[in-house]
Structures are given as structure tokens and as C-alpha cells.
Specification:
The chain is an alpha+beta fold. It is built from six helices and six strands. The structure holds flavin mononucleotide (FMN). Flavin mononucleotide binds near residues 11, 71 and 125.
């Protein structure tokens, strides 16, 4: 797949096959994540891979907490990747951390690299971040930004719509 094909093939996948992800595909995905740019090249991220039954159970519990619609489809996938940002090391602009931007860029590298490998992902941000932080046993320096399931798609979702370019691009 060329770059534009990858971009236009990617879509959110919410149904997964149980088939495992091959290690060589994972390796290419991590290399794509590693290559992501970040403010001052600080790379203030860490990606947790959830594979074991006990960790899956912990994540499942958080994804079913009241307040958000349950995102349990994520646990259908053989892997769940949780994107963290480091509050201590991320660059700050006017006192405000750039952490979510850096982590989002690296996570999107993961998402696009996965699409290039024929794998499905879905950004998930609708969960109780405090509860997730606790369930993962993280230190105070870590912020949970998002998570995504990672595995082979078991659905072909309908394309979602986008705003016209004329509405989103403006010459000034
Ligand atoms: C930051 C972010 C958070 C999202 N959170 C969720 C979520 O919690 N649950 C979910 O099912 N989809 C979530 N999505 C997926 C969006 O709904 C999806 O990207 C959008 O509808 C466009 O569809 P597409 O990804 O298939 O192109 C999220 C996407 C982004 C970028």
C-alpha cells in the first residue's frame, strides 16, 4: 500500500478476529511509533501492551465503569495498546504541557502503521482516566491519553463522512 492508500484505508475497527498479531508486524509498528516527531524531540511517551488475562480483566473493568458507554469491543482484539504521556518530561508552552499533542502523533503513527499491515485499530478516549491510571498502577508522572485495540479486523465498516476541504482549509 502506498501512503495515500494507507491513509484512506484506515478506519476505526470495532470487531476483531482472535488471530494473533505476528511479531514482525509488531516490530514494524513499533519502529513507526519510534520515528514520530515530538516537541524538542523529548519523546515523552510510553506504550503499554495489554495481552495477559489478568491485565485484560483490569482494563475491561475500567472500560465498563459507569459514565461512559462501554468500550469492551477493545478486549476482543488480541492486543490492547495504551498510550501514556510523561508529565515531567514533556515540553511546556506558556506553562501548558504539549504532552497530548506528542502522544497523539506517536499513536497515529501506530494506527497508520497498523493499517499498512492490514491490522485494525480504534482510538478510544471515552473511559475514566483516573480509574485507568489506578488500574495500571501508574506513577503520578504518567498520564493516560488513549488506548486502541490492535488485531485483525472482523468487519468492513462503512466510510464515515468528512467536512469538505473548502470548510477546513482557509488561505489567510
Ligand atoms: C481522539 C479520539 C478519540 C476517540 N474515542 C473513541 C472512543 O472512545 N470510542 C470509539 O468507539 N471511537 C472513538 N474514536 C473513533 C472516532 O469515533 C472515529 O475516528 C471517527 O468517527 C471517524 O471514523 P473513522 O475512524 O472510521 O474514520 C475516537 C477517535 C479519536 C481521534
Amino acid at each position: 500500500m502506498d501512503f495515500h492508500e494507507v491513509i484512506h484505508t484506515r478506519c476505526s475497527i470495532r470487531k476483531f478476529k482472535a488471530a494473533p498479531v505476528e511479531p514482525e508486524k509488531l516490530e514494524r509498528i513499533w519502529r513507526a511509533v519510534q520515528a514520530a516527531p515530538s516537541a524538542c524531540n523529548l519523546q515523552p511517551w510510553r506504550f503499554l501492551v495489554v495481552r495477559s488475562a489478568p491485565m485484560r480483566a483490569r482494563v475491561h473493568e475500567v472500560l465498563t465503569l459507569r459514565g461512559f458507554s462501554p468500550q469492551t469491543f477493545a478486549l476482543e482484539a488480541p492486543l490492547v495498546v495504551i498510550a501514556l504521556g510523561n508529565r515531567t518530561t514533556a515540553w511546556k508552552r506558556d506553562g501548558e504541557s504539549i504532552l497530548p499533542v506528542d502522544v497523539a502523533i506517536a499513536t497515529e503513527h501506530l494506527v497508520l502503521a497498523a493499517a499498512a499491515e492490514g491490522l485494525g485499530t480504534c482510538w478510544i478516549a471515552a473511559f475514566n482516566r483516573g480509574a485507568m491510571h489506578k488500574a495500571l498502577g501508574l506513577g503520578p508522572e504518567w498520564e493516560v491519553v488513549a488506548l486502541t485495540p490492535l488485531g485483525y479486523p472482523d468487519e468492513t465498516p462503512r466510510k464515515t463522512s468528512r467536512k469538505p476541504i473548502a470548510e477546513i482549509v482557509q488561505e489567510i
